[in-house]
Predict the structure.
Amino acid sequence: MSNFRTLDDLGDIRGKAVLVREDLNVPMADGQVTDDTRLRAAAPTLLELADAGAKVLVLAHFGRPRGTPDAKYSLLQVVQALANVLGREVRFLDVGEAPQLPDGSIAVVENTRFDPGEESNAPEFVAKLSKLGEIYVNDAFSAAHRAHASTEGLAHVLPAYAGRAMQAELEALEKALGNPEQPVAAVVGGAKVSSKLDVLRHLVGKVDHLIIGGGMANTFLAARGVDVGKSLCEHDLAATAEAILDAAEIAGCTVHLPYDVVVASEFAANPPSLRTCNVHEVAADEMILDVGPQAVEALADVLKTCRTLVWNGPLGAFETPPFDSATVALAKTAAALTREGSLASVAGGGDTVAALNHAGVAGDFTYVSTAGGAFLEWMEGKVLPGVAALEAAAR
C-alpha cells in the first residue's frame, strides 16, 4: 500500500488539464539532445494521461537561468526530441498562456526557472502555474529534493498524484531501505568520505553489511593505522571515520574494508608499476587504485548471504583500466543474484549508473535510479520535499 496517490487513483480525466512535472533537463550539444534517457522515462506517464483524454501540460526546468528568461535555456529546444520519443506531436507554451488545447494533446510549458518564484517556491508563482491545470502529477524524482513551486508548491493547491516513473522509484526505494528484506548490504564508494558522511552515518543503523570502496576506503584504512602511501586520502577525517566504525559496531553492522588492493606508483591506464598486495604492504610511493581480487571474492560471498543491496559509488577508479576490475566483478555477482531472484538490488548516482553500464549489468539490477542529488539525500535519510508533499496530499 503506497502512502501517495498514483495514476490508478485518477478516475475519468477526459478533457481535464493535467500539470505533469517531469525532468527534461537533458544534455545537449549543437542544439541536439545527446542522451534521451530522461525523455524516455517521462513517456509512460505522458502517454497514459494523453491516451485517457487529458490535456497534458509538462512542467520542467532546464539549466540554471537564475530567474530570468534566456534563450539558451529555453525548453523549446527539447520539444522535438520529446515528440520523437513519444511518437506524437508536442506543442509549446509560455507560462502566461491560457492553453487552448484539444483533449489528448501534450504541450511543454516554458522553463519554470525563468521566473524567480520557481526556486523560492513563491505562492504567487504557484498560483500562476495552478491556473494552467486542474490536477498535478509529479513524475520527477530527480527534482524531489528541491522545495520549488513546480516540485512541491503545486501539490498543496491541486489534487496531487505520483506519475509512473516517480511511483516506480519510490516503490523501489521503499523495498531497498524503507522496508527491506533482511539481511541488507550497502556498497558505498567514490573518492571522498566528506561527500558521503551523512550517507555512511545513516546506513550503519540501517544495514547489516556496509562495503566501503573507492578513495573513501583509504581514509578508513588510514584511520585504522594502515599506511596508504600516496593514495587519495582525507587524513583529517580519521576521527570521523573512527566514529562511524564505532557506531557500526554498536548497531551490529559489519563494515567491510579491502584487505588486498591494486596499487601503482602512477595513475594511468595499465601502468608498468601495477601490482596487487596486502593493504599493509603499500609502499610510500604507491597509491591504492582498486580493491584486490581476494577481497572482491569475499564481498561476493557476503552478497550471497543477503536479500537486499543498495549501491552508490564505484569500488575503484573504474574509468581507467584495469582499475574497473573490482567494480565490474562485484556488479556482475549482484546482477547474477538478482536474476536468480535471491537479491533485490537498487543502485543510483551518476558514477554508479556509468559503472553498471560499463559492466553491462544495469538492466539486470532490480532498479537503477538516474537521480543524483535526490538519490543521495534519500540514502542520507533526509525528507525529500517533493515526496513529502505527495504524501501529505494523499492524507
Q: What stands out?
A: The mean pLDDT is 95.
